[in-house]
């Protein structure tokens, strides 16, 4: 019975092999595939009917290493004049150099995130930016564990976990990114990889109060190849169950799990309808103010989805 439910749950993601037994017995925290199907109590009726979590919809724009003073002034002006749905937390992450410019010109409706931070207190660390400096400029958030830092810069789980713990200790919120490479997905290791990365955060942080999890399959980032709503939902549900089993039911319910990877104004509404997708982390499409606003406002498709 468990095996048939499990194989049903993993259609489209795992190879048809008994991987589940393998990852249930692995040394890192386990995941019960039947949890949502058999053990979840009926959910009380809510205003936002298509949400498994209880957190507010969250949309972040990761501008990466893009922009000039002029192009950023234009983007800020477009964002300032955009009509944004009220029940969404909206955050943008400019390059460090432009945080001050953005903070001084952007509407307070939108919060600022950094794209990285140093692992501890500032000091003799050439080329690094400290959490204290980010706070001084008005950043409320920092993106950590982004795949470009994991796979291009070479940051590992332990280092990322330490960065998260330090940022949280100083009062920054953390957008904690996880996600598998294409070859890992093809080898049926998607859950293993995501849970390993989650565990590294879990081992390092004292609390999940100020963390948003971003599931970003690496093969979907900047490629135009978005995960299907079902592929994303499947991993988001597994992440929530992992939190429930390994942290607490409360953390599982409260923690926003957002999706990133080629989200745009044309696909965000369908993705937002999935009950475990609590928002988005947007790269390329966040460089266009009106399109980013469309993605923010895809929260409305969630409200009418169920
Ligand atoms: P993308 O980037 O939207 O350009 O795919 C997403 C991200 O890296 O956060």
UniProtKB/TrEMBL annotation:
PROSITE patterns: TIM_1, TIM_2. Keywords: Isomerase. Pathway: Carbohydrate biosynthesis. Pfam families: TIM. Gene3D superfamilies: Aldolase class I. SUPFAM superfamilies: Triosephosphate isomerase (TIM). GO terms for molecular function: isomerase activity. GO terms for biological process: carbohydrate catabolic process. CDD domains: TIM. It comes from the Eukaryota. InterPro entries: Aldolase_TIM, TIM_sf, TrioseP_Isoase_bac/euk, Triosephosphate_isomerase, Triosephosphate_isomerase_AS. Belongs to the triosephosphate isomerase family. Homodimer. This is Triosephosphate isomerase, chloroplastic. It comes from Flemingia macrophylla. The lineage of its organism: Eukaryota, Viridiplantae, Streptophyta, Embryophyta, Tracheophyta.
């Amino acid at each position: 019975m468990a095996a048939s439910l499990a194989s049903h749950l993993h259609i489209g993601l795992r190879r048809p092999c008994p991987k589940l037994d393998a990852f249930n017995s692995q040394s890192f925290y386990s995941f019960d595939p039947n949890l949502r199907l058999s053990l979840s109590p009926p959910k009380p009726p809510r205003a936002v009917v298509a949400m498994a979590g209880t957190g507010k919809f969250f949309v972040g724009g990761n501008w990466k290493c893009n922009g000039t003073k002029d192009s950023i002034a234009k983007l800020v002006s477009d964002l300032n004049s955009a009509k944004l749905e009220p029940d969404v937390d909206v955050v943008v992450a400019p390059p460090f150099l432009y945080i001050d410019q953005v903070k001084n010109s952007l509407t307070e409706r939108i919060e600022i995130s950094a794209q990285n931070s140093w692992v501890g207190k500032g000091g003799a660390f050439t080329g690094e930016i400290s959490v204290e400096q980010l706070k001084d400029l008005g950043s409320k958030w920092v993106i950590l564990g982004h795949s470009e830092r994991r796979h291009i810069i070479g940051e590992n789980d332990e280092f990322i976990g330490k960065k998260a713990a330090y940022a949280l200790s100083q009062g920054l919120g953390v957008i904690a990114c996880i996600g598998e490479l294409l070859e890992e997905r093809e080898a049926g290791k998607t859950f293993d990889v995501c849970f390993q990365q989650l565990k590294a955060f879990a081992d390092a942080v004292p609390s999940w109060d100020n963390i948003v999890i971003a599931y970003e399959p690496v093969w979907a980032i900047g490629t135009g190849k978005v995960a299907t709503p079902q592929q994303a939902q499947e991993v988001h549900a597994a992440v929530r169950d992992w939190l429930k089993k390994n942290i607490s039911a409360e953390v599982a319910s409260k923690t926003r799990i957002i999706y990133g990877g080629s989200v745009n104004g044309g696909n965000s509404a369908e993705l937002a309808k999935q009950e475990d997708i609590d928002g988005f982390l947007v790269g390329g499409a966040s460089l266009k103010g009106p399109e980013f606003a469309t993605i923010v406002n895809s929260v409305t498709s969630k409200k009418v989805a169920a």
